[in-house]
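#onboarding

Welcome to the new folks! Below is a worked example of what a typical request in this channel looks like: someone posts a single protein sequence, and someone else replies with the predicted structure as tokens. Don't worry about understanding the tokens yet, we'll cover that in week two.

Example request:
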Amino acid sequence: MKKLGLFAAVAAMLMGFASCEKVEPTALETTDLTYSKLAGHVYYTKLDDNGATDAIKLYESKGTVTIEVTEKGADDKATGNVVIVTADLKGGKFEANIPVAVGKKADCKATCIFVQENYDLKTTADDSDFKLTPITYKGEAKATVAYGETVYVELFGAKVGSLDDGYHFLN
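Example response:
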């Protein structure tokens, strides 16, 4: 009887090993990864020839949005690791892949500096009037992005200065 029990145990064990299937590992493709994204639009205030707000306009020319990504640790504080990501501006829209580790978050600061022709106050010795001129705008937005998340932001360009203004980059 003991021999029969031992034989049954060995047979069960051999059947167990025979049923194991070998599985080959598969390669990890970048298409398999989940990206975090920061996307949005860039706007500015269009003025009329009297200096009054005419409309909020989408900045539709080409440009670049620079995104400063600061990794956050488990304690939700910045780790000091900063990555700069850029995104092309097309039709006033941008979208960028943000490097965020699984289970983590990152603080993002998106900035876009652009030049757009608009009405601006011109003061001369004999008159003061609003004239069409190139103006530099700077738009910024901040957001926190988690792993696998897509966050949308709006950048509203504030006037930095006119190109012929002596204090152009001091604001």
